[in-house]
Amino acid sequence: MNKVAIVVLAGTESHESLGRIVNALELAKELQDHDDEVKIIFDGAGTEWIPELEDIEHDAHPLYNAVKQNIYGACRFCAKAFGVFKEIKESEIDLLDEYDQHPSLRNFITKGYQIINF
Description:
The protein is an alpha/beta fold. The protein contains six helices and five strands.
């Protein structure tokens, strides 16, 4: 079984960014469908995606919803910095502050996860 942590750093500002989030979610779904262990972390500008993807009208919402159980969380510091703290809190996705108010990617490394950034 593979252990993969997918880190979403892409913001919401461009068509290219939409491609990156869709590819991140597709990889998560593929891993999930093959019974691999997958954790999705939204960090940096990537935290902006959570309110977007929570919207049932968003084209990528069904894909997001299909892998939502694998979302480990979103960076607490970045959620505040990018103005989406309240929306993420309302989504019930964990806000991560394991290391200096950020997610600890080291924790994933020490547990044998491969880390892939989008």
